[in-house]
Design brief:
Blueprint (H helix, E strand, L loop, with lengths): L10 H11 L4 E6 L5 E5 H17 L7 E5 L4 H12 L3 E5 L5 H11 L3 E4 L5 H4 L9 E3 L5 H6 L3 H7 L14 E6 L9 E5 H11 L10 E4 L6 H14 L2 E4 L6 H8 L3 E4 L1 H14 L2 H9 L1 H15 L6 E4 L6 H9 L4 E5 L9 E2 L12 E2 L4 E4 L5 E5 L6 E2 L3 H6 L7 E9 L5 E6 L4 E2 L5 E2 L1 H8 L5 E7 L7 E6 L1 H7 L4 H17 L11 E4 L18 H8 L3 H6 L4 E4 L3
Helix pairs in contact: 2-3, 2-7, 8-9, 12-13, 17-18
Length: 565
Amino acid sequence: MATTASPETLALQRLYHWEKTAPDRVAFTQPLGGGPVRDYTWREVADQARRVASYLRAQGIQPGDRIALISKNTAHWMMTDWAIWLAGGVSVPLYPTLAPHTIRQILEHSGSKLLFVGKLDGWLHMKPGIPDGMPCIAHPLADDDAKKSYPQWDDIVARHEPLAGEPVRAADDLSTIMYTSGTTGNPKGVMHTFGAFAMAVAEGLKRIPLRADSRMLSYLPLSHVVERALVEHGQLATGMRVYFAESLDTFTADLQRARPTVFFSVPRLWVKFQQGVLHKMPQKKLDLFLKLPILSGIVRKKVLGALGLDQCIFAAGGAAPMPLELLHWYSRLGLNIAEGYGMTENLGASHITLGDPSTFGTVGTPYNQVQCRIDPSNGEIQVKSPWTMLGYYREPELTKAAFTDDGWLKTGDKGSVDGSGRLRITGRVKDLFKTSKGKYVAPAPIEDKLVMHSSVEACCVTGANMGQPLALVMLNVEAVRQAGSPGGRGEIESSLAEHLKAVNATLDPHEQLDCVVVMTEAWTVDNDLITPTFKVKRNRVEDLFAKHYDRWVEARKPVVWHQAS
């Protein structure tokens, strides 16, 4: 088995390859706001990255210096990453929705010498997190305030000659420090090399059909490991075309423009897509149409076309477990969703299915060169691969704690392996909680069932040391609107009560929920209840709401409404 990457597969070498062999091929399609888009060829993007690299060198950037980047996904995000590598630096991407104190923490912890500021929804809110005196560069789609305050990308490109030659970054050179989204505490800086990305992507492409003529829409944060590996490094490996989304409001149009052949999304967004379909075509009507031989094909094509997924040959989900019912729902539409598994610490490349319905409920078998075992003492999944992280930046004790004594990465997830070698995720080791009756409850499988209600966008099952667990749910936008209409709240309450009854009927007695609590305030990154990848921060939920648990249960109602104070 190969345990090192060949030089020609490394990121910069791939950039040089496309620059030379396909200079006029479109690499990126970037919305410019309000309708127009711009295509960038490989010649253009390589030229701009080289010119910005020259500027960085002129600013005294030395090999190994950390350079940070905070932006939503854009063509300039990618070009910035390449410019940093060309200049010899190590890129430190930040999620584009971070609070100011987290921005400051990461910039200071990483020792970043410079920050690129790109397209952001709340720049003025974030700006106080930038340490005084830190040099910054503004992207073309940055906020006007940033463009007035800092040197601008386009001016830098116009005033500097492109960096000449083909600077080499070796396989074992540090490429990036990726800070985790902070589900379990402060973000940790995961260190990965150029070789790690090349090896992981090479194995991923044996299962994921990316080619030179493939199209992907980039919209999940490029600071997240899956988007970084699959989209950025997947493009460098294959030369495919990448489209960018403009905003949530234009997402459907962005998808329809890209017509992606490969599409990845997190479970929460797959649920939202489903709810959008059912808002226009109720489930009973959809079920009826799908039973009719000729009409079923027309309906499937129409629904997938409306989603912009009618040309998708490989759809995938990950970052959190996909509800089994949701996988079957899409399968009936003719879209079989593969489910992947991994961590930032192993570049998200551990396991994946191929979308075969017989594998639904599992994350498939390990990639080649990945080893997987289950700790018999607590059921924890542990893995090994050649692309496992170097460690956490400046955190030797945390790095040591992330591995077993014999060198396996501890995932923190619980799971089991079936007779075909397929891994099934059953929850988080630390998410298990014990009721006052001494029984353990695994919340994740229960949450998968609750979130399938058409009004629910996110949920959290909790209740340590209580007689029975309970669930907190956040309504989606349509349900919030309905709850504010005459009689709407009662309809939602009645429907949720029926859903709770149906879910409880599938659970063991000690798992059955006392009640569902409807939260009237949205869970957002700003109020620190979810991560930038839409994972609920369980500890934060418990810190804020545990004081209400007894009162909610004592109400003796299946559905309780919590009004934010």
